[in-house]
Amino acid sequence: MTSELRGLSCFHMKRFLRYVVLSVSLGLVPTCAELPEYARPHMVQSDELQMKPPTGFAYRPLTREDFRATSLSGQQAEHAERINAYTATLIRLSADSSFRITSGDLYGQRYFFGRIERLGFEAVMLPDRSWWSPRIPANMGDYVLQHEQIHFALTELAARQLTIDIQKWASEVLVMEPTPQEVQAELSKQIKDRINAAMQVNLKRQAEFDEDTSLFFNPKWQRWWALTVEEELRRTHRERKDHEKDR
Length: 247
Description:
The protein is α+β, with helices and mostly antiparallel strands. It has one domain. It has five helices and ten strands. The strands form two sheets. Strands 2, 3, 4, 5, 8 and 9 form a six-stranded antiparallel sheet that branches. The chain has a four-stranded antiparallel sheet with strand order 1-6-7-10. A hairpin with a 2-residue loop joins strand 6 and strand 7. Helix 2 packs across helix 4. The longest helix is centred in the last third of the chain and has 34 residues.
C-alpha cells in the first residue's frame, strides 16, 4: 500500500450547527405538580427557526434587553400568559476550531483525507428568538433573569464538557473521501452527531432545573442552582486551560 500526499489546505467549518435548545421560564402555577409539556425545555433544528445564520453571543451575564423577540410562536403562544421568559441557546464550534485536508494517491486513485486540528465548543444565546414577558411583576424580574442565566450557563457547561470529552476522539479522526466537499460533509456530520448527543444530555439537566424552580417561587433553591453552576463554570474553565497547556 502506498500513499503520496500532494497538497494540503486548512478550512473552518460552519460554526452554527444544527440544534437549538429552547427553555421556558414558567409563571407560577401552583396547581401543577410537574412541568406542562409546553414549558419543558426542548430541542429543534435551527432551520425550523428560519435562522440563516442565527445571530447571538457567547456566554456572559444576561440583561432584560437581551430578550428581543416581540412575541412567542407555536405552542408557547397559546400559553403566553403563563410564561415569564423564553430563552433560545445553542452550541456552536468555537472560532479557533480548525480542520486540515490533504490529498494523495492510494492504490493509484486520488483521495482526500480530513483531520481535526483543533476542536472546541461554546454556548450562544439568540436574542432575536428569546422573549421577555411584559407582564412579569416587578418583584419577580430578578428571579426570572437569574433563572434564564442559569439556563444559559447549563448550555455553556454542556459545551465546555463536550470540548473536554471530545479531544481524544478528535485527535484520532481520519476521514477519507473522493472529494474535499465529501470530507467536509462527513466531518460536519460526525461533529453534529456529538453535539446532538451533548444537547440531549443538556436537555435532561435543563428539565431537572425547571422542575426544581419553575413551578414554585423558591429563591433559596434557585440560588443553590446558581452557586452550583458558577462553581462548575470555574472548574471547567480551569480544566480547559490545563488541557490547552498540554497540547
